Amino acid sequence: MAKLLDEYWSIGPVGIPSRLVLAPMAGVSVQAFRRQGRRFGAGLVCTEMVSSAGLRHRNKRSSEYLRIASDEHPLAVQIFGSDPALMAEAGRMVESAGADLVDLNFGCPVKKVTRSGSGAALLEQLELATRIVASVTEAVSIPVTVKMRSGIEPGSRACLELGPLLAEAGASALTLHPRSARQMYGGRADHSLTAELAARAGVPVLASGDVTNHADAVGLLELGAAAVMIGRAAQGNPWRLREILSGSSYEPSHAEVVAELVHFMRGATRELGERRAGGLLKKFYGWYLGHGRFPKPFKQQLIGCATVAGAERLLLETVPGARERLEQLENEPIGASETALELPISLYGGG
Ligand SMILES: Cc1cc2nc3c(=O)[nH]c(=O)nc-3n(C[C@H](O)[C@H](O)[C@H](O)COP(=O)(O)O)c2cc1C
Fold this sequence. Notes:
alpha/beta, TIM Barrel, 44% helix
């Protein structure tokens, strides 16, 4: 029977309410982003990658990434590293923090990460990569998943050889972003590789890369993917998740956009503290107000605000109609620890 985007599925014992998954993105996938993604229909959300060495050394930023709100579940925490014992220890910390899944990053193309043998470097280290999966799987009782790229060099099909080995070593699901590491984000994701991997992996395969609409997503399920991951298309645009799920297009009103943005700003500020949130939010202003929704000079004005509170005032003065929706959002029950968190190492393009 054909799979449906809005149906329940599972990875091992973890039930997932839709086949839409919010991609892990360094410097983006903060708790406010993940919660919003769940609210707009993502069945599963994921933290950005967290360093296993950082966790071992009780690095403040890495450890703080293990704070999980009750309304995020099901949630995967992604870790990276190349030492099987350290990765196992990090996996145990992720499990005791309450994550539903531990995801291993075998796809980050950034030199700072691959230089140490982590991320995409593992795509061509079959023996070490399988040892890492086996070691983490043995250490935890939650399912272990792996997110990969297709290979290191353009045209590489390394994922097709490695993927089934990782499944044999204990991975309960695999995500493929079918671009080579060298490609970074250029060209198009080659989802014929996703189809091939899905046919031979023996575990669910999630498709990541260039999914921006309902037809793309349905097409990937037809190719054999168990679920579809949405990354850049959801940045500042949670409505896109609903559109992808339902197949009906939707243009939010100015009031909805501003209410969601201000709600996000408040969440990010509670999470990261005013200073760090201020830096993070500058990217999000453009993403929310883009798509032809607001004129460019307004975006610039917002970015120029010295404080998050100042930006909020400007938004609500410009679109007073947002107040009512904002109040509803703020009154929705949340289950988080509301302490200030800090972002972990923020690397553009963790996978
Ligand atoms: C800013 C940014 C940060 C990313 N960080 C991570 C990460 O931490 N871990 C990871 O596995 N992938 C990371 N990725 C890759 C995405 O998860 C996803 O695979 C990729 O963006 C392709 O999907 P998209 O076309 O839907 O954006 C990142 C991508 C972007 C754009």
